[in-house]
Amino acid sequence: MSTIEIKHLTFGYDNQGTELFSDAELTLQTEWKLGLIGRNGRGKTTLLNLLQNKLPYAGTIQHQVSFTYFPQAVTDPTQLTYYVLQELTDFEDWKIQRELNLLQLDPEILWREFGTLSGGEQTKVLLVLLFVDEVNFPLIDEPTNHLDVVARKQVADYLKQKRQGFILVSHDRSFVDQVVDHVLSIEKSRLVLYQGNFSVYEEQKGMRDRYEQEQNQKLKKEIGRLKQTAADKAEWSRGREKDKYGKPSVKGSGAIGDTGAIGARAARVMKKAKNLERRMDNQISKKEQLLKDIEYIDPLTINYQPTHHKLLLKVTDLQLSYEGKPLFDPLSFELHQGQRLAIQGANGSGKSSIIRWLQGTFDGEATGEILRPQQLAVSYVRQNYEDNQGTLIEFAESHPLNYQDLLNNLKKLGFERSVFQNPIQDMSMGQRKRVELAKSLATAAELFIWDEPLNYLDVFNQEQLETMITEVQPTMLIVEHDETFLKNVATEVLYLSKPSEAEDKK
């Protein structure tokens, strides 16, 4: 067993102006299977880079281990997979064979060109490299990208049976829940460690947030009372300030205006009032420092326009093919107003092809019929959105979208204000995905069709979407691999099987 000790860690990027970590303290055990979670932009990948000493920082990070990182950079995907792996690390052939078997991959995959492998196959063979290396400590960054439901379960089972520890970044809550025994949450101003899986983290964090919100409310009331008292005292002391000038004597009244005595008395009262005011300010300042920096998740808005049509889609005997090879057996389905139909199936089974067919962009052969209302307003979230270009205001004008609605949802999705002026093509993949999602939310539509909407989104974004969909209940057709998300939002599920699989089940 070894430890990773973080002491007084402070780090921030120069162009962001704020610190991601400020005087952070943490001790981790390398035997833990640790899930690293937090909002996009909070520093999950940055922390992995700091552990690897890839970035300058203040403080100390002490450990006796060396790290290996996933995903590894492949420089030449035209090589056979075996030689790609050889370039990345040294290994014994029998260990590679063992790990491939554990991931239910045919060893023949080693002799295929790496670039011809599917995204899921590439993910699996690169994961294999982490565990043929029994010396270095694995840092695993988003292994579920490109994996279907079956492949995610295979990888989860694979990681569960490993005896060695690792640090895992993933936004798939079900996947993390199955795999980890500790959770490290990067929150607004601190690192918080939890013992247990993701479900334990959610329960404990919920209890802690509720307690801290109650304490915050009490503190805010106390601060408000102190501020009112300070304001009253300040007003009273200003009144005493006027007294030191005394009242002018009235001719013939016999009164003698002793302005010197009155002024001295007023000065003493004023000094006492000022001391009281300073004490009140100190109390307010101390109370304000006790306020917890709680993670508030603002609700998203969606421009859903319910239609008077009850039936929005009726598809009969649909079959899609490439070069005469069908992707799935003929299928039929209906989508009624208020329903949320999830399409599930293995990678390559034709889920995204159905969406392209509905858009009129499928480039293969298609048979079947579709019935839908004329002028049906549809809003899409696409898997591929590289054609999103320009500034946000140019983007809003070209679609067209309400610019303020676009910005508001981007802010709620955790978009950093410093990025608002950047061209979309210069943004990170996570930022570009949120632009695509915010575009769909701002588009007036009777039907929302989303193709893998959760890629690159953090857990908090996923919960925002679930809450919004549950409350608004828009009509939707969704392709997604995240089981927790579908369980929470889908009303109907359509499962696609490849024709050969369907024959086997008969």
Explain the overall architecture.
41% of the residues lie in helices and 21% in strands. β6, α5 and β7 (166-169) form a beta-alpha-beta unit. Residues 252-256 and 501-506 have low confidence and may be disordered. The radius of gyration is 31 Å and the shape is globular. Strands 5-6-7-3-8-9 form a six-stranded mixed sheet, with helices on both faces. A five-stranded parallel sheet has the order 15-16-17-13-18, sandwiched between helices. The protein starts with a strand and ends with a helix. α3 crosses α4 (119-132), α5 (149-160) packs parallel to α6 and α7 runs antiparallel to α8 (259-290). It is an alpha/beta fold and 506 residues long. Pfam families: ABC_tran (PF00005). One of its GO terms (molecular function) is ATP binding.
Summarize this structure as a short list of keywords or feature phrases.
506 residues; 6-stranded mixed sheet; 5-stranded parallel sheet; globular; ATP-binding
Task: Give helix % range.
Answer: 40-55%
Sketch the major β-sheet: 6 strands, mixed
Give the beta-strand count. 18
Structural class: alpha/beta
- What is the CA-atom radius of gyration, in angstroms? 31 Å
